[in-house]
Write a structure and sequence with these properties.
Elements (H helix, E strand, L loop, with lengths): L1 H9 L8 H25 L8 H20 L2 H12 L11 H19 L2 H20 L9 E9 L9 H7 E12 L4 E10 L5 H11 L5 E4 L10
Antiparallel strand pairs: 1-3, 1-4, 2-3
Length: 232
Amino acid sequence: MTEFIENLVSGSAGSTITLANTLTILGSMIAIGLFISFIYMLTNKEEGYTPSFPITLIMMPTIVAIIILLVGNSVARAFSLAGAFSLIRFRSTAGDPKDIAYVFFSVAVGLAGGIGYIGYAALFAAVLCLAMVILTKIRFGKPRNSSMHLKITIPESLNYQGLFDDIMSKYTTSWNLQKVKTKEFGSLFELVYQVQLKNGASQKEFIDALRCRNGNLDINLTLMAFEEKVYV
């Protein structure tokens, strides 16, 4: 038992692949991946997440460990590192930077496990997951006022320059007109703002004030940039 525990920490970089060793590494990587995935879901409850991403975090350490196991010798392993890290290219669209951090985190754990340092892989996972939980709980880096996207449709007869400045001043701490485009063959304009609502400001009152100014046309106020995320 003591020898087995020592092997988990000391590694098996130079040893021949055996069935028992392989199953131990793969089982450990799946368990650590489950732990990382659980922490990811816990720390992203408020922001939401793509449902398939936690599954990816479970599989990522195991896949990387398999690659390292199949590489075998240290020279080939050095050339395989770039290929292992290129696994992050599975994401077709740019995601939250925190999601990318979890991907690199999972790859690093898989590399450690594949080489044979299962004890250190578990230690890395525990320390980094604890850091993620603490940073999320203390809301590190999050502004007091959430940034929101505001889309306002107005008729083409209205001059949009300065049209909503007084309303913005009343309900927001800052606003920035990012884009103006025409709709319905030029009969309508769509204004896209980035705004930060004041603490305690009513979103309904804010939208009602805008509706009185834009002729009760469409208004869209969204908090998240990625609409495909889900909340749990």
